[in-house]
Amino acid sequence: MSEDTDHHDETARREAATDGGSAAGADGTTLDPWGSSTVEDYRKLFEEFGIEAFDEVLPEVPDPHYLMRRGVIFGHREYRDVLRAMRDGDPAAVLSGFMPTGDPHIGHKLVFDEIIWHQRQGLDAYALIADLEAHSARGLSWAEIDEHARDYLLSLLALGFDPEEGELYRQSTNRPLQDLAFELGSKANFSELQAIYGFDGETDVSHMQSVVTQMADILYPQLDGPKPTVIPVGPDQDPHVRLARDLAARMRYFKVTEAYASFETDDAERALLADAYDALATEGDDPVRCEDAAAHVAAAFDAPALVESLENAGMEPLRPRVRFLDRNATPEAFEALIEAVDGEKRVYEGHVDAFDLDHDAAAHLAREVEVDHGGYGFYAPSSLYHRFMTGLTGGKMSSSVPASHISLLDDPEEGYEKVTSATTGGRETAELQRELGGEADECPVYELYAYLLAADDDEFATRVYDECVGGERLCGDCKEQAATLMREFLADHQEKREEAAERLDSLDIDLDLDSSRR
After folding, report:
1. pTM of the predicted model, to two decimals?
2. Residues linked to residue 75 through DSSP beta bridges, in sequence order
3. CA distance 57 to 75
4. CA-to-CA distance for 306 and 301, rounded, in angstroms?
5. For 203, how many CA atoms within 13 A lie in the half-sphere containing its CB?
6. Could you tell me how far CA 91 lies from the centroid of its own chain?
7. Contact (Cβ atoms closer than 8 angstroms) between residue 353 and residue 299
8. How far is 296 from 168, CA to CA, in rounded Å?
9. Are 240 and 1 in contact (CB under 8 A)?
10. CA–CA distance from 313 to each of 5, 179, 294, 316, 346 (Å)?
11. Residue 406, exposed/middle/buried by CB under 10 A (0-12, 13-18, 19+)?
12. Rounded to whole angstroms, how far apart are CA atoms 55 and 53?
């Protein structure tokens, strides 16, 4: 979940497209939170990992950030939950973290901007320094971590994060976070971490502990009450998001599902029961019987286990209902749920069926009973995914290759020089450029315009793109303009960092832990 410094980003799109192409040096769709992250084709993330295309929800976003409009933010998981809360004025939160392994750079600015935009939309905002992860997974000393942590937080404040309306923290000094991590650890096991992250017998325990701490980070905004929460990250962090969603569900007292009969079914079997019910239900008073549904399913589908269950249920009516499954409820909470369900209901060992509630009302009731009886009531966290930035020298952007990235701490003149020396998507000669046009979609310099330098001015970003691909804009002039804008941005940002220093020193966050750890 924490944003590392070895991010590499696919080419920006002039419009909000979500079907990116192949990145130079890409190695497929392996998502490794600690590796050198590449994504060969963003479309594969939709197919292989269930990430949804962001352009499907873009029309529902109020005053969308330019990163959303331009397709830099390309995917999401259940972001509609957050949008619904945002629209209705209900509590919601945004959180992301940063592993302080080097200077903050322009790739990190994407996440800074996403946190700040959500904060300005009224969400509770959280930003954290993943110092335990940096120490355990990357082996950084506490002195190095202290130095980098300060730099990340100064840039976040300089870009507009309001600490009075949000929370900044370090993993290592947040005791409620660590207590939550301990609780979450009881719901995870080594085999699971091995399957997700490739851990083996050589993986140290601290590294595994840092994973559980990140799960606690993702759910931390809900400690003061359940609320939809969005985690803006690069797609390499998706394994963390998926595990956190699983653990949030495992911590819940109740699971709420749709059902049709007294016996348990999985999602696929429920779909077949819905088909049978729709086919057999009539406007009369005669109920659909399970034995009738068994005949229908046997004739239409290959589902022998479901047919057997239906036949065993015999004359039991097949009726739509909402089911509350007891996962971790105390006896008192289960009894309170039974009492709270209005209308017709059936009580079984381990679950309750309600016939007069829809799924949303049932989910709300289950969460309410859980919180009233000491549970967390977690919402599964949502997430946003942004494209990786291409390094200025081509290939991946890496903190270990200074020429490939622009640090937010770079001297403005150094930033200027890096841009003028950057690789472009231009043709071999000016004549070919005028004849064929440039390849803006393959150009790290155009990315700088789309991701940063054009800021909120979509017309400017579009004009740069059109002039490039139309052959009107030559690379030398384009880089000179971009380099000048970058110099201005860095000068302005660093002036604001200086202004933020006093404010950071006044906050309740310890940025000098090294001496206390010796």
Report:
1. 0.87
2. 53, 385
3. 10
4. 10
5. 16
6. 18
7. no
8. 58
9. yes
10. 58, 45, 9, 6, 16
11. buried
12. 6
Alpha-carbon separation of residue 517 from 136, 143, 144, 505 (angstroms)? 15, 10, 13, 21
Is the pLDDT score of 499 beyond 90? Answer: yes
- Mean pLDDT over each residue of the chain, to the nearest integer: 88
Q: How far apart are CA 26 and CA 14, in angstroms?
A: 22
How many CB atoms lie under 10 A from the CB of residue 364?
Answer: 12
Q: How far apart are alpha carbons 272 and 305 in whole angstroms?
A: 12
Structure tokens at 257: 């599902």
Which pLDDT value is given to residue 515? 54
Domain positions in the chain: 2-250+379-386, 255-372, 402-505
pLDDT in tens, 381-398: 999 999 988 888 877 777
Ramachandran quadrant class, 377 (left: phi over 0; alpha: psi -120 to 50; beta: rest): left
pLDDT of residue 75: 93
Report helix, strand or coil for 430: helix
Which residues, 6+ apart, have CB-to-CB distance to 350 below 8 Å?
325, 326
DSSP state of 343: S
3-state secondary structure of 478: helix
CA end-to-end distance (rounded Å), the chain: 28
How wide is the angle at C-alpha 242 spanned by C-alphas 303 and 36, nearest 5°? 125
Better-scored residue on pLDDT, 67 or 441: 67
Domain 2-250+379-386 has CATH 3.90.550.10: no
∠ CA(365), CA(366), CA(369), 5° rounding?
A: 85
Burial of 370 (0-12, 13-18, 19+ CB in 10 A): buried
Nearest to 255 by CA among 343, 190, 327: 327
Exposure letters 293-325 (e unless 16+ CB within 10 A, then b): bbebbbeebebeebbebbeebeebebbebbbbb
Identify residue 497 by its one-letter amino acid code. R
Alpha carbon distances (Å) from 209 to 10, 137, 189, 193, 452: 32, 10, 11, 10, 36
CA–CA dist 57, 76 (Å, integer): 9
- Is 1.10.240.10 the CATH number for 402-505? yes
CB neighbourhood size of 106 (10 A): 25
